[in-house]
Automatic annotation (TrEMBL):
PH domain mapped to chain residues: 566-673
Domain C2: 1-105, 116-232
Organism for this UniProt entry: Macaca mulatta
Transmembrane segments: none
Alphabetical list of Gene3D superfamilies matching this protein: C2 domain (2.60.40.150), GTPase Activation - p120gap, domain 1 (1.10.506.10), Pleckstrin-homology domain (PH domain)/Phosphotyrosine-binding domain (PTB) (2.30.29.30)
Localization in the cell: Cell membrane; Cytoplasm, Cytosol
Keyword Calcium: yes
Listed name of the protein: Ras GTPase-activating protein 4 isoform 1
Gene Ontology BP annotations: cellular response to calcium ion; intracellular signal transduction; negative regulation of Ras protein signal transduction
PROSITE patterns xref list: C2, PH_DOMAIN, RAS_GTPASE_ACTIV_1, RAS_GTPASE_ACTIV_2, ZF_BTK
Domain Ras-GAP stretches: 302-512
Gene (UniProt): RASA4
Region (Disordered): 783-803
Amino acid sequence: MAKRSSLYIRIVEGKNLPAKDITGSSDPYCIVKVDNEPIIRTATVWKTLCPFWGEEYQVHLPPTFHTVAFYVMDEDALSRDDVIGKVCLPRDTLASHPKGFSGWTHLTEVDPDEEVQGEIHLRLEVQPGTRACRLRCSVLEARDLAPKDRNGASDPFVRVRYKGRTQETSIVKKSCYPRWNETFEFELEEGATEVLCVETWDWDLVSRNDFLGKVVIDIQRLQVAQPEEGWFRLQPYQTKSRQHDEGNLGSLQLEVRLRDEMVLPSSCYQPLVQLLCHEVKLGMQGPGQLISLIEETTSTECRQDVATNLLKLFLGQGLAKDFLDLLFQLELSRTSETNTLFRSNSLASKSMESFLKVAGMQYLHGVLGPIVNKVFEEKKYVELDPSKVEVKDVGCSGLHRPQTEAEVLEQSAQTLRAHLGALLSALSRSVRACPAVVRATFRQLFRRVRERFPGAQHENVPFIAVTSFLCLRFFSPAIMSPKLFHLRERHADARTSRTLLLLAKAVQNVGNMDTPASRAKEAWMEPLQPTVRQGVAQLKDFITKLVDIEEKDELDLQRTLSLQAPPVKEGPLFIHRTKGKGPLMSSSFKKLYFFLTTEALSFAKTPSSKKSALIKLANIRAAEKVEEKSFGSSHVMQVIYTDDVGRPQTAYLQCKCVNELNQWLSALRKVSINNTGLLGSYHPGVFRGDKWSCCHQKEKTGQGCDKTRSRVTLQEWNDPLDHDLEAQLIYRHLLGVEAMLWERHRELSRGAEAGTVPTSPGEAPKDSLAQLLRVLQDLREAHSSSLAGSPPSEPNCLLELQT
């Protein structure tokens, strides 16, 4: 059994932020840190005191984390970015909100004495003496201390205080991973109740020393315990009360949900997985229709999560198409009006949305990417609504006179017609580029709808069913919010955002097959009608080709694709190139294009040129960050691996931002998670001259000075499937609705006794549900047995006094 923790984070918006620029505004963005480790950076929203981000993230991390903090920053082009304020959420606070923490919270001032991180390694012992006992405290080393100096490091020393006496270690220059190995002794009085305080400081020659954190040890507990040695987390000074300052720095709206799951071995979930798969394989002929029952008992607020979990489970079993087909049939069976088909937030709609994001995101990027990039690069003023036209924003025409409203509207229509035409042309050419499993699913949807509505008057209904997902729930949202679909790194400015919104509306009109109802909503969209009508014909031709590809062609294509290792991640990075003697005589980086597959990390000069393998996947031992001071550059990572003869090697790669850095680290960690020989510790610095820059050790092959963070990853649409976790999440959901399942079982039992419930040969609906309830009971017992055998907490936690 393994405990897995994940954080769902949605950074919604900020309000009433203070102005940090001379213009009376700010350029705010957010940095998210887990235990002071930066893992997420939102896009910057320019020139506003009330920014909207709307960005969502899922982070997987060890269950031992302590806090998650949100820092609101003001971006400056010429100087260091200003800190506006922060929101800090301890793990205990998140755990006390099972449905998640949601709402507005005030930003607080960032106090340097609270910005501590890292751990200190201590050996503590009470030794008996002839007159009195003696307390011996050995200060061995520290790791991951906060960098307080401009060089990206600190000059740490330790101050040990007991009952008015103070002793200090030596100063270790330019290191966040110092080693002291110094011992201090204090005489204890009988029945001593005082505490031992171990403080870590950054020494400064000119200004005052900076506080790096402290550990407080309860002497009474130590006297009754055995000698203890271990790593202690550094704590800040007691938080100051700032009630009188609440609201002065503005507020942040957040949604944060912590999910802790105890995942059992795969064998425990097999009965549940087999039962659900059996239902899907039987389809509408199934005895119990458990999928329909799950939909009935799932509330609207958690339907998206349940849909995603079920979809991933069936993807892992090769039954995604069958699962979606069953949902299509269920919705069609209860739908009589064609204009409401797949328009509600049903399990079918939510599952199909998740399916397209998992299976079709790369296809979406290929079709939409060039068009969205062009809109961003042109930055043209585009407006079709006469009530919103602002001629002054356009400037002057070539005749050096202000343009008229009619000219603005006509130019806007021409620009949108060009973008819409380019998009539809790209879509028409993309039939073969569409993933085989997506084509097969759309083909099945098309056939089911045509069977349900066969009349000539419903000729367009199968096409609208496909476009309701492809255009309305996939392409249009991506056009309106390209940042959320990873099409762009930054949010659009107001002008670009308006252009994208109008283009998305046009795509929706095409997806609705240019019905009179869609045209009547916004009459000012009429100038686009010729292109929309042409687009409807193009879209119908595209869908016809998409659903007409034979099963045999699909299988042949899948076999061809299976021979190639698909890229897990790709993109430009800067690789360190050595010059002269030694590994790091030069800190120059060269730009290359990298490809990460399930086999190797490779590179090439350009995306289309011949690839050269850099690291075999099985040889990766760790993927971690590098201290900024190591190269004088930020966002550098290292991939530690062994070469073909088993010698340890390190590749240094630089990314352009913290998000890209964490995405690459996450991808590398996921693909190598099952490698043998993964490192538990590493050096975050570089070996230069005769020592490591981080901890000053002189042994190049010695043990690392910091813990690897191999379990910290970001969830992405192309993540490898985790079958056991998805099964556990489905079990957890079913456990929450178990009372409703029992009530349904009792209704079916009464109906069967009265003869009012039809039964299929061999098994009644209630029998299938009874099987599910027995499986839930078995899983509950398996969890109870596993928890009963869980290991105790680490002993040195008892010695630390919480302050």
